Amino acid sequence: MKVAATINKNNSEIWIKNMGADVVFSQSTHLEKELDQAEMTPVDYVINLDTEKEKSFDHLAEFKETATVLLLHFVKKKRKDVDPDFLHFYCDEFLESSFETAEGIDYSRKIMELLVYLWGKNQLKSILTAQLNGFSDKNFYGAHKLIENNPNFRHLVLVNE
Fold first, then answer.
1. Which one of 17, 62, 79, 161 counts the least CB within 10 Å of its CB?
2. How far apart are the first and last CA of the chain?
């Protein structure tokens, strides 16, 4: 499967390609034309990670005739009036309900076992780009500067020794 990703001006194209995207486009371009030029049409699947409270999904309408469109909602209890042909997955509802029943707990356990298995087979990639040891003014300042000046340091961890 070929993967195309879109980025805004705050994302790093290098980081997204390292995560596995074959092609990276700017969100400000006409996506259908860019995909066609990259010989990636027709599109079979579109996954939209919805992390904003106010966001339109009108740009996804161009794909609904040829692709399965999945919206992953990460904003708590957000409901929008969007195309009923899109598939929706509300992460907060899933997490809240997954531990209420024995079936939900078993399903969650199976997902975790699958993730551990895939990690052990080196089929998952960590998003961690850097780690600084010790909670100190110097490390907090350094972490902030790394993220501010280099979008490739988007996922940074400070570890208290």
1. 161
2. 42
In tens, the pLDDT along 21-74 reads: 899 888 766 788 888 899 998 889 988 877 776 666 777 888 888 888 887 777
C-alpha 102/C-alpha 66 separation (Å) is 38
Residue 79 has pLDDT above 70, yes or no: no
Kindly state the tokens that stand for 52. Answer: 């904003």
- The answer to whether residues 123 and 102 touch, using CB atoms and an 8 Å cutoff, is no
Looking at this protein, which amino acid is placed at residue 11?
A: N
**Of 146, 148, 150, 149, whose CA–CA distance to 158 is shortest?**
146
What b/e readout covers 36-67, taking b as 16+ CB neighbours within 10 angstroms? eeeebeebeebebebeeeebeeeebeebeeeb
- Is 81 strand, coil or helix? coil
Could you tell me the pTM of the whole model?
0.63
Amino acid 45 reads Y
C-alpha 45/C-alpha 56 separation (Å) is 19
User: By the 8 A CB rule, do 76 and 85 touch?
Assistant: no
